[in-house]
Specification:
306 residues, D-Maltodextrin-Binding Protein, domain 2, binds ligand PBG, Porphobilinogen_deaminase_C_sf, 36% helix, five-stranded mixed β-sheet, Double Stranded RNA Binding Domain, 3 domains, single chain, alpha/beta
Length: 306
Amino acid sequence: MIIGTRGSDLALAQATTIERMLAERGVKTSRKIIKTTGDTFTDRPLHEVAGVGAFVRELDDRMLEGDVDIAVHSMKDMPTVRPERLSTSAVIKRDSPCDVLLTIDGSKLEELPENAIIGTTSMRRRAQLLRYRPDLEVHDLRGNINTRIRKLEEGQYDGILLAEAGLQRMNWDLDVQRLDPKHFCPSANQGTIAVVTLAGSEAEKVTSALDDRRTRIETAVERIVVTPVEGGCTAPVGSFTHFINDSELHVLAEVLSLDGTEQVRIDEVIPAENYEEHARKLGMELVELGGKELVQRAVCQLGKRV
Ligand SMILES: NCc1[nH]cc(CCC(=O)O)c1CC(=O)O
């Protein structure tokens, strides 16, 4: 079977993980590298280039055309609405969901000097960082993980924010500070690899053996809770859910203003039974608390920045 993947180091590492898991089950695969719009314009902020799903849409198209059998994605980059004929056949057991801070000199977030410059293009990370340390300066930093680390080393920033899962997958053992999800609530589905196939295909059957039930439920709740306020992947929205025991989930979700001075937040424990219904209720709560207005304002302000 043919595995389609983007060509970035992170995407290739993720594809390798899935290839290994399938090989262990006796499934032979070959690899096809697909270039996406998000990969082509790496010098501009992602929200200017292609919008939601830039990394995913082209692989979807190639699958629908029959060019690839299996696609591997960072699940957090997948749009919520999916083509009907495609199936998310496996949600792989989650790696670290957390963000990390990587600094030039090993400083922790609390130790950075006033007005230190931190690089990130994520509006969520910017807002959460400013909420925690309003004195810091946040500068844009676009590019894949390699590029971002290179720009840090070149001295343009005192520190940068990254997903820990990305570093883990690249096997980079860097001295980072893991940020507490309480203050740095991750993006929905951060740290999770998803496998996509055609619905009803042999590939779907084979890859579904890789599915992790708990991660599937956690990631589903994360999506459902923020769907009613969602302004695309560019809005300052965090959503993180995890099992705290066999029957309960802790749900953390929030919307922030771009400058981090305003927030709307959900912090609840729900039963795993009927999780969809509970998650939908929390999503409505987020709207009632004013989450939608916050997202709309942020999207408006972003439009003016561009
Ligand atoms: N936005 C790009 C992206 N998509 C997935 C990851 C990392 C791996 C993951 O979260 O699963 C990253 C890099 C980052 O956010 O630093």
